[in-house]
From TrEMBL:
The chain crosses the membrane at residues 6-39, 51-73, 85-104, 116-146, 166-189, 201-230, 236-256, 326-347, 359-384. The keyword Membrane applies. It comes from Acinetobacter piscicola. It comes from the Bacteria. This is O-antigen ligase domain-containing protein. The keyword Iron does not apply. Signal peptide: none annotated. Keywords: Membrane, Transmembrane, Transmembrane helix.
Length: 400
């Protein structure tokens, strides 16, 4: 029962689910419980903060200092960058502290079980999104309660999107690509040491196929994870191939019998056979043009313009590239702290193969930010928190 409750809480967080009645995600309501538990541990440790937690908060503090300097230099700006990156990360920290502490640690679940829960939650999100795509009436009913997270689109635009592609609940489009790529690569680096290998292969196939349907950028995660899986665990060839063949035959049959399936397959794979005339080609051209927009002032390169969005609520300077969005917001100094926060958290996760895991997941972060703003902190925090709370020196005052 506790495992099921944990899965629900984890799903709500990973999917970033929020209702149409509030402007913030559902998990925000439960984060104060984590803050209370954190302060309780802080009191028990005689007001000494765990060193790993202290470093995490120190990096965020540095980022806030840089934002303050940017505000002083520019004398104008917005706080959307701080809110979307660092405030979100802090709230995520306390929420994860709550669910890991209460539902996982107390039930003696191991790292392998946590990885399985996480990957299953992503596969569940994509499968449920697929069901909604196949049934427009269910789609309308679901999103009459829950937010589509497509902030700039009205209901007509959302319906148009739903006619062309699958909208992942909670994290549509590039947000879905971030989760898919991270999950596929996490699965690959952990696969060798898992007790759930056959389940993980099925989940890999589900996330790979439906992940492309939600965001074509998922193909990077598929490619990198496949390289790791097939190089590292050759005996998985046959099982993976069998699952893929069965799924592809099913999709091939459905393609000629169901118009919705045909739409989703065309969106997912047409760029492979006719890239020049595909939507992916237009996206690539737009991305290249964005890379040509760079700061013209030294101060912007250092601390940014302190703007994250423009007056119309769209991306500042019309830029969607992760690196340049951060540079325009908080400069190179802000970019360094942004990346440092994620690398530090990754380094302190109890991976069986730390070097491979670090390199592979760092590649995911670096690649995705060439396409859009990819803040993976909220995902990495899940495994960092488990690693920290199960550490033998957590709560040991002499080692704080």
């Amino acid at each position: 029962m506790f495992n099921f409750i944990f899965f629900i809480f984890l799903f709500i967080f990973v999917v970033n689910l929020k209702t149409v009645f509030f402007s913030f995600p559902i998990f925000y309501f439960f984060a104060p419980i984590g803050l209370f538990l954190f302060l309780k541990d802080f009191y028990v440790s005689k007001f000494l903060l765990d060193r790993k937690f202290l470093t995490f908060f120190f990096i965020i503090f540095l980022s806030l200092i840089i934002s303050a300097i940017s505000l002083l230099v520019n004398q104008i700006g917005d706080f959307f960058y701080v809110r979307q990156i660092y405030l979100y990360s802090i709230i995520s920290f306390f929420y994860i502290f709550f669910i890991i502490k209460i539902f996982l640690i107390n039930q003696n679940n191991d790292f392998d079980k946590l990885v399985l829960f996480f990957i299953t939650s992503v596969a569940t999100q994509l499968f449920f999104s697929f069901v909604l795509f196949m049934s427009p009436s269910l789609f309308d009913a679901f999103f009459s309660i829950f937010d589509t997270a497509i902030g700039y689109a009205d209901s007509d635009a959302v319906d148009k999107f739903n006619e062309q592609r699958m909208i992942a609940i909670g994290n549509p489009f590039f947000g879905s690509a971030i989760i898919n790529c991270f999950t596929l690569v996490l699965l690959a680096v952990h696969f060798k040491f898992s007790k759930y290998k056959k389940i993980l292969i099925v989940l890999w196939v589900v996330i790979a196929i439906l992940g492309i349907a939600s965001a074509r950028t998922t193909i990077f995660g598929i490619t990198l994870s496949l390289i790791i899986l097939l190089k590292d665990y050759k005996s998985s060839y046959r099982y993976l191939l069998a699952v893929l063949i069965i799924l592809l035959i099913s999709l091939n049959f459905a393609y000629f019998t169901n118009e919705r399936i045909q739409t989703i397959i065309d969106f997912s794979f047409s760029f492979i056979f006719d890239f020049k005339n595909s939507q992916a080609s237009d996206s690539a051209s737009e991305l290249v043009s964005m890379w040509n927009i760079l700061p013209s002032k030294v101060s912007t390169w250092l601390v940014g313009d302190n703007f994250f969005i423009d007056q119309n609520g769209y991306y500042y300077k019309g830029i969607d590239v992760g690196y340049t969005r951060i540079i325009f917001a908080n400069g190179m100094l802000g970019l360094i702290t942004f990346l440092s926060m994620q690398v530090y958290l990754l380094y302190n996760i109890k991976f069986k193969r730390l070097v491979l895991s670090l390199i592979a997941l760092l590649l995911v972060i670096l690649f995705l930010n060439f396409k859009g703003l990819a803040n993976l902190t909220f995902l990495i925090l899940i495994f960092f928190m488990y690693s920290r709370l199960t550490s033998t020196d957590y709560g040991d005052v002499s080692k704080l």
